[in-house]
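Appendix B. One record, verbatim.
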Amino acid sequence: MSFSIPGLVARVAAGSALGCVLMGAGLAQPTPASPPIAASASAPTLAQAVDSAWQRAVQAREADGQARRAQAERAAASSLWAAPPSLELSHRDDRWQTSAGRRETEAGLAWPLWLPGQRSARGAAVDADLELAQAAVDAGRLHYAGLVREAAWAIAAQRAEVGLADAQVRYLQGMADDVQRRVQAGDLAHADALAAHAETLAANALLLAARQRLAASQSQWTLLTGLQLAPDVAPSAAASLQSPSLPVESHPDARLARLALERARKQLDVVTTSRRDPPELLLRLRQDVPGRGESAQHSIGIGVRIPLGTEGRNQPLAAAALSEIDVAETRAQRTHERLAAEAAQAQAAVRATEQQLQAERQRAALLRERAGLIDRSFKAGETPLPELLRAVSAAAQADAGLARQHTALGLAQARLEQALGNLP
């Protein structure tokens, strides 16, 4: 998706129905609204915000730990021995029996050996773990990209509301001042001044509520990303959004599910090649002393210990590995179906939102023209104030709807990018 820095509020407010009414009425100058959180050259991009959010995420630490464990497993799989060697020590004498001075001392080492094919199978499983760890990082970053996109567009929507509410307050305040002058001149009744003042107070209350919602959205943004500023975002006009070009298989979630299935199969290979515990090569040094005054005798012994594999040992391991494969296959299939459905829904949402935006734009233009006509009629003394207030309120609501539809289109496009697996 294409994001740009120009403010959404300024664009919407400058071309809004309320701004045109202001110019037509001559009651106030239509200046773009200044949101409490202004864009600046130091405002981060969406990509920078995603990086910041990922660095703060617990999931990032889990992914790093998974990668470190896989690296440690790789080092173990590259060893010459299937397990760490062990040292054996034993000593016997007849001190508590005949006390004839007979002694026997033995020291030995045991080296576990790889079974045929076991080392390569374990190495392949470790490689699958490393790829899975990297895929988990990519999928996690995409997840946080979705959270950042939602938060950024929530702030954009709140900025638009604050800008429009501020413009409406300034217009109503100017109109209330004009009404008060006409009341003092005897052209209007005092009740009209009270109504205009009441409308201004109501608009001020809406402005305060909008600013409060904007502050809440900004607080959520800071909690998510650790950043004080949020980027200004705008809907993209890229035609490529109309036809997704990325296949579902390229989505990080699909790749993660596929690698999890591959890892499960590699684990089954490890179980298959490890039908018994590793055999051990034994080397022993022995010293025998037959009795007092007799010379010691030394000997060297070499042996092999071969554990036997039983069904009681192997069946639970094989069943667990097969069960993991079955779960991984089902998860991969469901993930593929989910991603395809989400991409289709997001694409349909973009098209529907574009049509709604066009309708809102036409509606705002009609109410803008109507408000301007009624304003001129009010100035000429041909239309009562309540009708003007209703026309201005309808135009303001249309402008708010148009601004919301602008942000809705941008959010729909962002969700399409998210469904396609694209990072900002």
